[in-house]
TrEMBL record:
Organism: Dendrobium chrysotoxum (Orchid)
Record's protein name: Chlororespiratory reduction 21
InterPro entries named among the record's database cross-references: E_motif (IPR046848), PPR_At4g14850-like_plant (IPR046960), PPR_rpt (IPR002885), TPR-like_helical_dom_sf (IPR011990)
Record bears the keyword Repeat: yes
UniProt KW keywords: Repeat
Amino acid sequence: MASLPLLPPPSPATVRFPACVSSPMTKVSSSTCGPSSSNNIKKREYFSNSNAILPLSLKNSSSWDELYEIQAHSIKANAIEDEVIFSKFFALCNSSRSLDLDFAKKNFFSLPHRNSLFWITLINGYAQSPLPETSILLFVKLLEEDSFLLCPHIVPPLLKACVKLSAFFEGAQIHSLATKCGMVVDSYVQNSLIQVYFGCGWPFVAQLLFDKMPARSVVTWNCVIAGYSELGLWEKVISLFWMMIEEALVEPNLVTFVRVVTACSKSDDFDSGKKIYRYIVENGVSLSLNLGNALMNMFMKFGDIKLARELFDELPMPDVVSWTTLITGYSRVGRIREAHEVFDRMPDRSIVTWNAIIAGYILNGLFKNAVLLYKEMLVLDLKPDKSTFLSVLSACAKSEDLPAGKVIHAYISKVGIDIALDLIHSILGLYTKCGEMNMAELLFRKMKVLNEISWTLMMTGYVRCGQIEVAMKIFNKMPKKDIASWNALITILAQNNHSFEALNIFEDMMRMKVTPNSLTLVSSLSCCAKIGALDLGKWIHFYIKRNDFKIDAQLSASLIDMYAKCGCIELSLEVFYRTPRKDLIVWSTIIRGLAMHGQSKLAFIIFKQMEDSGLQPDAITFLGVLSACNHSGFLEEGYHYFDKMSKVYGISPTVEHCSCMVDLLGRLGLLQQAKDFINRMGITSRSEAIWGALLAACKLHGDIMLAEYAVNMLLELNPTNSGAYVLLSNIYAKNSKWNCMRTVRILMKGKGIKKIPGFSSIEVNGGVHEFFVGDYSHSQSADIYMVLDGLEKLSKKCEYFID
């Protein structure tokens, strides 16, 4: 039987032959072969002498021209009918590119006889291509032509195509056919069926199939674990892991460990994470790059920086993910200096790493540094991506650096970057955060697509500008109000000290039967904490219990903070002890609450318990501990924790930490030590908060000379600081220096500086009442001041001094 050519008739439009081949069936003369004709003649002679060299030549083929040439020689030598040679040729041209697949399919259907191997190869190629539906059509063609060619190896690629197409019905049909033909007993087919049911969103069917399997290998367990991982059911992944090693006695492999460690990170299950790591160490599991990166990420997320760094040092060849994980971990716990040192040590920095260090600076509130890093990228001729722009625009918005933000906006427009909706929202957020509402309105009107985020950004911008009525009009105009819109309005009102308005919106939301989520409750509890609305805070806590809300770490911390600020530290402790999974925020919040209530020793005990649990404190945690020392006058403990913060945990003291130490020294009357401490801090001393703390201590102890020095430093930093003038005036009055006090008051009046009035709030019978200094607006103000005068007279009789 004469062999048929695998290629279509030669024409420039369909087939590209090398210069030395005119067609598959014509002889080639040396005059047409060009400079490399001698090599090609030797190659053809070798092919004609031995068909055994063809598979090797196909394997070593490096270009399509060579492939065409080899195919032509195989046809000439009558070797194309050899199934081994044709299979290797077919597999080589069966790539994921649609043009190559079409070429393979044409050659395939030109064959007089097609076996199972050829069908499997072509179906598998299309299953992995952007055209997976073709593999299913080919399978139907196979059933029509010769169903006896069916074999178990043809089922997995078909099921893979069903996963890509989310074709549950077709997958179920293939499952039925495989069962009918007895192919479902094959473990490879069973694993593929599990994958297709998970991939099509039917996990209970996959679990049922898994449960009925008589024998389950580690690959099968990994298929089920991977399926639940893709669905985000992390607790199920962890329970399957322990079932795998304890009940089924199947030894997990590296793929299993990577999946389950990732599940611990995603579910915030640090206890399971530590147990799994202990299992890895005790069983001598080799640390692959992927497993090392997964473990590093987990320990970094849970604050165990030391162990994460040890894992990094154990990696023989850290990749970009390893370095980036280390940078992100250091940034997350406030150790940005060490994060930058790691960044500087990197041998090769990708755009992902640059984005990580920029995000780290933003996370630590160093917005100007983040913008400087962006400028350094441009100097180094590195091309920023969308993530870079999203980060630096966020930095400009948070620092309210409008000029830099405008430059970045202009650069994006000039370069012609495809501005996606999230990038437009970042630019819009920049203008609304900086109060540039004219530019925001202009951009808003030009937007072709408006969604809830667009409307919410405009609404929050007007709230920040104090135009609450305009913000409410925008909120009412929104075509669709989802829970995110309600949350945004409540949150932005709370952040801009409009707590009463925020709680009114929350009550409106509840009246309209809009179901709140965790963020709604967190923002509302924050407002209750600010104005002391204990009854409403208790009602929200009751609502959480009644509706079976999952009390996560953030919601738990909000409840602890609310009860502490409303004077119920016992209820704060009750919530704290009932929180099953305590993260760093929960620990820090209860420590700060105990410090506020003067229970410093208990705060120290809980701080020690936190360290023993494996969590490493951050800058906020230490601020709470130092506040505890401050409220109780524990100077030795204050120095101990202040030194421990930098020497043990590598956390650089912030302005707040230094102010706390100055306040502690000042309360104890150690004013000169406080001044010396400020001078030792160097650049940190250039802060109003630190000099304000020293000035308050001077008022307490009547040190006029040091007070005048502190005021001069304060006014050098901010000439319009009304608090500095008022405190100095009060110090002069306390020491009967009336002329000096009058001079300060005249100076304030001459400069047009007015004291910002303070206010207090009190909850009575479920209603919160707000009072400013000298406020007579309350309907019962006459009765209130009568009681206040009575209390003042009573206190004087008891010889209490009222300042």
